[in-house]
Structures are given as C-alpha cells and as structure tokens.
Amino acid sequence: MTKQIQFFDTTLRDGEQTIGVNFSIQDKLILAQKIADWGADVIEAGFPVASENDFKAVRQIGKNVTNCNVIGLARCVKKDIDAVTQALADAPTGQIHVFIATSPIHREAKLHMDQAAVIKKINECVSYAHKSFEHVEFSPEDATRTEWNFLVTAIRTAINAGADVINIPDTTGYTNPDEFGALFDYLKENIPEFDRVTFSVHCHNDLGMATANALAAVKHGASRIEGTINGIGERAGNTALEEVAAAMDVRKDFYQVENQVDLTKTYELAKLVSEKSKMPIPHNKPIIGANVFAHESGIHQDGFLKNHATYEILTPQSVGIAHSSIPLGKLSGSHAVAAKLKQLGYQITSADMHKIFPIFKQVADQQAIVSAEDLRQIMQRFEKTVQKS
Ligand SMILES: [Zn+2]
User: Fold this and answer.
1) What is the pLDDT of residue 388?
2) How far is the CA of 202 from the centre of ligand 1 (A)?
3) How far does the centroid of ligand 1 lie from the alpha carbon of residue 144, in Å?
4) Distance from Cα 369 to the centre of ligand 1, integer Å
5) Distance of CA 33 to the CA centre of its chain
6) How far apart are the C-alpha atoms of 196 and 44, rounded to whole Å?
7) Ligand 1 mean position to 363 CA, how many Å?
8) How far is the CA of 177 from the centre of ligand 1 (A)?
9) Which of 79, 80, 117, 284 has the highest Cβ tally under 10 A?
10) Cα 348 to averaged position of ligand 1 atoms, centre (Å)
11) Cα dihedral 166, 171, 173, 179 sign
12) How far apart are alpha carbons 227 and 224 in whole angstroms?
C-alpha cells in the first residue's frame, strides 16, 4: 500500500501569528470548514489559553468541524493543558499538541532549565495531557538546533509518557533538506519506538527552504506535514501546504506517497485565506500566484501554444484555476498575437500579420501589457494602412 501523508494545517494558529493577521471567530469557523473540505487531516484551531477569543474559536471549531481532527496547542504548563481540555470537551475529534523547547539557546535564555529539568517536564506534561486525550502530539521546540542525542532522549520520554505523534519543528527555519534528512535517519536509528508513532514536521521559511525541508523529511520517514495555506506564519512564514500538495502530485514518480487533499479546491481556498488574512498573494507565488500560468515571452508563448506541457508542469485546472493566459507584451511573438486576434474574431492571413506585427511592436514597446482594447486599435491602424494602399 502506498504511504499516506497527513496534512496538519496551522493557518488558524501559526498563520494567525503573522504580524497584522487577526481572524474573527466567524472567519476561523469558515476557514476551518474550507480547510477540512480541502482535505487536511488535522486542523490546529488555536492556543486556547492565549485569549478568550482563541478559546471560543477552538471550542466552536471542535464542535462544528467534524470531517477532520481538531487540535489545540498547549505549552508544557498545567493551565494550558486544562484550557485545551475544556475547549475541546464537546469535540468529537479533539486532540492536544503540547510543546517545550529543547535547544540549548531556548533552555538557557528562555526557560532557565537544564536538560534534566526539561525531561522531567516532558514526562509530567505528556502524561497529564494523555489523561484527557487519547491522541497527544508532542513537539520539542527548536528541535533542529537541539543536540541530537538529547533530542532522542526528549522524544523517547514523550513516547513513553503517551505521545503518539512526535513533531520535529524547525522553529527558526535553520535547517536544510540534506541535514534534515540526516536528522530523520539518526532518529530512526536511535529511537526503537520510531515506527510505533507518527513523525511530523513543522518547518519555517526563514531561508526559503520550508517546503523543501518538509518534503525531505517525508523521504526520510515523516508521515505528517504541518504548514499553512499561502505559507503565512511567524516571520517568513511556514511550509505552504498547497506547495507540498502540488509537489506530491506533479512528482508522484519521485515521492510515491498519497494524501487526501483535493487539489482542485486549492485556488479557491488560497483566495479565501488571502482575503481573510488581508495578505495579497504575490504574483510569483508558486502554485497560486497570478503569473504562474501566464506566459509572456515569444519563445515561451510559441512553445506553449504548440503544447502546454512545454512550459507548464501542472495544469491550472488541477489547482482550480480556469485557464492559462498568454498576456501580450514587447517580448511576445507573432504566433501569440495572431492567436489572440483570432480569439477576438479577426480573420488574419499571414500576409496581414507581416503588416500588423510591426504596429504591435511599436505599441508594445511603450507599455507593459497590450490589452484586447489595444489590439482593436492596432487593427484599426492596420485597416487604415490597407485602405490607403
Ligand atoms: Zn511555527
């Protein structure tokens, strides 16, 4: 059987930690349902102890969104765990995610705890969370800057205390695909319980490698990927889940894994997240940006018109975008211009095109994009020259 990869969406928790983003409870409910319908296996609905609104949002999502697991976040602190327990008391699929930092910089500068104290805390908080929840996910925060042997001790402590999902966060976007893969190989070798639990990854994009790191981890034994829609999140953001889903689809041959995402719902969901987060989608954003299925230069347009696969590795329809576009500009060739004129209803011979194209070039040199209206004016100029001659 092909390995299944779970998608863990934290748009509503880590995504909301983006500067300037604040979803209303109503928006969170709408987004959670759309994310579940897209195919996420788990939604991290919030951090209930953080605020009254976070608590209410987690509670409502837990009650109402039933076609995926709903998880609440807690530090290794009793009152945080109690808040998740209360918020998800009526949730049919409620789960808990507890975390504590394990790296030397976090232990010394933030927690003021030594290794032994951190291990004691992990044991206490995972056991306590497991009293209320069958499924407990544990994260050693800043795992990628933690001593590897201590990371093994921390993870084994969590598993023995009842955690059935171990998430490896690259909290600061510090690692790279080779190193992350090697870390997973090390964990597999040194944790006898590795196959008994689900290994997850949570990557940040500080060096632009969040998606690549997450996919490298899958190649080395992870079976859950955490991330957000449009890659929103702290600082440079999280792994963009739509990128992971598209990569697994386009490169099925390489990854050889499956997931339950309905890729055709991607664009609609990305637009909704963009609208609710008030963060426009950059034009060059992979998978969903406005330029991703647009071809302007002559060589590309020519190839694309002959066979779309020359310059597109995935179809716009596969991610829910209606069609590709071939915007006309100064680099466009006569094939693309002729194709567009035909679309507008003009009957053009190749002799005509020899006269039309220089006029097009003159216009295109003056402006970034030549619109349909510009083309009509170009045709009027062309028809005048024909009448004169
Ligand atoms: Zn994060």
Assistant:
1) 75
2) 7
3) 13
4) 40
5) 17
6) 23
7) 49
8) 18
9) 80
10) 56
11) negative
12) 10
For 14-71, the DSSP string reads TGGGSTT----HHHHHHHHHHHHHHT-SEEEEE-TTT-HHHHHHHHHHHHH--SSEEE
* Per-residue confidence (pLDDT) for residue 40, from 0 to 100: 98
CA 113 to chain centre: 34
- pLDDT tens across 249-287, in order? 999 999 999 999 999 999 999 999 999 999 999 999 999
Q: What pLDDT shows up at residue 175?
A: 98
Does the pTM surpass 0.85? The reply is yes
Distance 226 CA to ligand 1 centre (A): 9
- Per-residue pLDDT of 312-354, as tens digits, reads 999 999 999 999 999 999 999 999 999 999 999 999 999 999 9
- 104-129 pLDDT, tens per residue? 999 999 999 999 999 999 999 999 99
- Tokens at residue 252, please? 């099925």
Closest to 215 (Cα-Cα) out of 286, 304, 309: 286
Q: Which of 166, 162, 106, 100 shows the shortest CA–CA distance to 132? A: 162
CA 120 to chain centre: 34
What are the tokens at 330? 């100064």
Distance 375 CA to ligand 1 centre (A): 49
HSE-up (13 A, CA, CB side) for residue 246: 27
Distance in angstroms (rounded) separating the CA atoms of residues 328 and 370: 5
Domains in the chain (CATH in brackets) are: 3-277 (3.20.20.70), 293-389 (no CATH)
Banded model confidence at residue 389, pLDDT cuts 50, 70, 90: low
Tell me how far the alpha carbon of residue 323 lies from the centroid of ligand 1, in angstroms: 34
Residue 40 CA to ligand 1 center (angstroms) comes to 17
Task: Dump pLDDT digits (tens) for 142-190.
Answer: 999 999 999 999 999 999 999 999 999 999 999 999 999 999 999 999 9
For all residues of the chain together, what is the average pLDDT? 96
User: Measured in angstroms, how far is the CA atom of residue 189 from the centroid of ligand 1?
Assistant: 26
Residues 356, 101: Cα–Cα separation, whole Å: 66
Closest CA to 195 of 222, 161, 226: 222
Distance 203 CA to ligand 1 centre (A): 7
CA atoms of 3 and 303, how far apart (whole Å): 36
Between the CA of 168 and the centroid of ligand 1 the distance, in Å, is 11
DSSP class of residue 198? E
